[in-house]
Automatic annotation (TrEMBL):
Residues 144-164 are annotated as: Disordered. Signal peptide: none annotated. Residues 3-58, 61-151 form the Reverse transcriptase Ty1/copia-type domain. This is Reverse transcriptase Ty1/copia-type domain-containing protein. CDD domains: RNase_HI_RT_Ty1. It holds the Pfam family RVT_2. It comes from Lupinus luteus (European yellow lupine).
């Protein structure tokens, strides 16, 4: 009974970037990776009244540190990832959790939240092959002709583009599933972000582009990201923007990606909240979004007792933005980079097939090499 048996309840959900960082660190530092499940039951019912609540703190990462050992737990509702460098400490944690919650031990981490994890002496592989094939099967595109790129670079999406769909919910479900696939697929991030702008009133052209993304996934459903065991604990980042590219609002697109050594751990595509009056202003806003992410990562690495000792090399291809962004001194080291080597470009616009494949290979989507 509310107020008697319980007062507050919520499901902790760890940030996806945290999961990728932990896997990259586990590969680099040879940590153990194990999976647990809490034995519980979920009750589902219909709500007949409005509910107001404050979001609870995201207590989804727990760490234990001593002079010689380190242990961490990632929590996603009732699924747990247990990692660390001391097997005896991990066994003790499992015993303590079992006494309190009756856990189910699932062995080495191999399948988590639809993510398929494979480990070798050289690296950890992360992909969503099963999820991608299920998406193709459910959408009826499993036997479709593959596409080389997720979008057509000559096509700019905007509202009222084609005939309004009679059932917008179908489009919404498809884009929602594609959004989940971006957890391990930076190559479709920009395309899916563009599609998500039209969830409320999609048209036939938007659905056609969504199917084009599916055809691209058909070309490579097993695409993966790698976390190298030879990774250094040094962050580097790339920031870019596409000025006034939104036809409907004239807002710009920000894009960035972050590497831990050679391992790609974070990326993002987002339409900016306000209209920028120049490309330099748009680039500065993109840099600001990236630095917020890097600041959060710095706090996370401190919590993991692995503080960053060097400034984060951050690459931008706009000299004016670099000159203006002096307020980030102490966290990042801003460096110029040519358009050809700007890895964040793939997160801000559609690219022709040759340029797209060039950027994806540099991102290290299959064989990750640190950009130089």
């Amino acid at each position: 009974m509310e107020g008697v048996d319980y007062f507050d309840r919520f499901s902790p959900v760890v940030k996806i970037t945290t999961i990728r960082i932990i896997m990259a660190l586990a590969a680099a530092k040879s940590w153990f990776l194990e999976q647990l499940d809490i034995n519980n039951a979920f009750l589902h019912g219909d709500l007949h009244e409005e509910v107001y609540m404050h979001p609870p703190p995201d207590q989804a990462l727990f760490t234990k540190h001593s002079f010689k050992s380190f242990t961490a737990i990632l929590v996603y509702v009732d699924d747990l990832v247990l990692t660390g460098n001391d097997s005896s400490q991990i066994q003790q944690v499992k015993h303590t959790l079992d006494v309190a919650y009756k856990i189910k031990y699932l062995g080495q981490l191999r399948y988590f939240l639809g993510l398929e994890i494979a480990r070798s002496a050289q690296e950890i592989h992360l992909n969503q092959r099963g999820y991608a094939l299920s998406l193709l099967q459910d959408s009826g595109t499993l036997a479709s002709k593959p596409a080389k790129t997720p979008t057509d670079p000559s096509l700019k999406l905007h509202t009222d583009q084609g005939t309004p769909l009679s059932d917008p919910s179908t489009y919404g479900r498809l884009v929602g599933r594609l959004l989940y696939l971006t957890i391990s697929r930076p190559d479709i991030t920009f395309a899916v972000q563009q599609l998500s702008l039209f969830m409320t009133s999609p048209c036939s052209t938007h659905l056609h582009v969504a199917h084009r993304v599916l055809h691209y996934i058909k070309n490579s459903p097993s695409q993966r990201i790698l976390f190298s065991s030879s990774s250094t604990l040094q962050l580097s980042a790339f920031s870019n923007s596409d000025w006034a590219c939104c036809i409907d609002t004239r807002k710009s697109i920000s894009g960035f990606c972050v590497f831990l050594g050679p391992s790609l751990i974070s990326w993002k595509t987002k339409k900016q909240n306000t209209v920028s009056r120049s490309s330099s202003e748009a680039e500065c806003r993109a840099l600001g979004s990236l630095v917020c992410e890097l600041q959060w990562m710095q706090y996370l690495f401190n919590d993991l007792h692995l503080p960053l000792s060097l400034l984060i090399s951050t690459y931008c291809d706009n000299q004016s933005a670099i000159y203006l962004a002096h307020n980030h001194k102490g966290l990042v080291h801003l460096l110029p980079i040519s358009y050809v080597n700007q890895l964040a470009d793939v997160f801000t616009k559609s690219l022709p097939p040759k340029a797209f494949q060039n950027f994806i290979s540099k991102l290290g989507h299959c064989d990750l090499h640190h950009p130089t």
